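Most newcomers find our protein records easier to grasp once they have seen one. Read left to right, the backbone structure tokens trace the chain's path through space. Nothing more is needed to start thinking about how sequence determines fold. An example says more than a description, so a record of this kind follows:
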Amino acid sequence: MPPRKASDAVLLSLRKFGLALPGAHTKSPWPGHLDLAVNDKTFAYLSLEGEPLSISCKLPHSQDAALMLSFTKPTGYGLGRSGWVTATFAAGKRPPLEMLQAWIFESYRAQAPKRLLKQLDPEPAGVAKAPARSKRVRKQSAKKARGGTKQTATRAASRAAAPRKAVAAQSPKTRGAGKRKRAK
């Protein structure tokens, strides 16, 4: 069946691109979607042919840049907080195929298991690679995940101890005054 709209041709091209990735398959969790998944984890929510083109992808590296575009918004149902971005295109508008392919590729990399990522060719033609994080950035991320540096731990301990010092500095009469009033 030939595509009815220009956006249908783009949709079929995006679906074909996504299904060419290792372990990718289609998934239809509810009516009105034929999504792309890997290991039963969706990496691209796609609309159906004949409907206005809509795509949602998980973009851990390019979410901020993607959300600056006029046709995008954070994905609903709380997915936007996890890096998901939805792009919706009006009828008659030609969606940017290369950019959407890059989004699908980034989303696939975010959802696919390592064993499938090893099977990937180097970046597909026309798809920008996510910037590699330096060793210094990886160390800072690890420190942040552990709760910060030694200096911040010391500050937190001193702040926690501060209220106790204030209570100890009060005279015995003042310290117990609040308890006596409540007991009456």
In short: Helices lie at 6-19, 63-66, 97-111, 114-117, 135-146, 150-169, 172-183. The longest strand covers residues 41-46. The two ends are 85 Å apart (CA to CA). The chain has a mean pLDDT of 75.
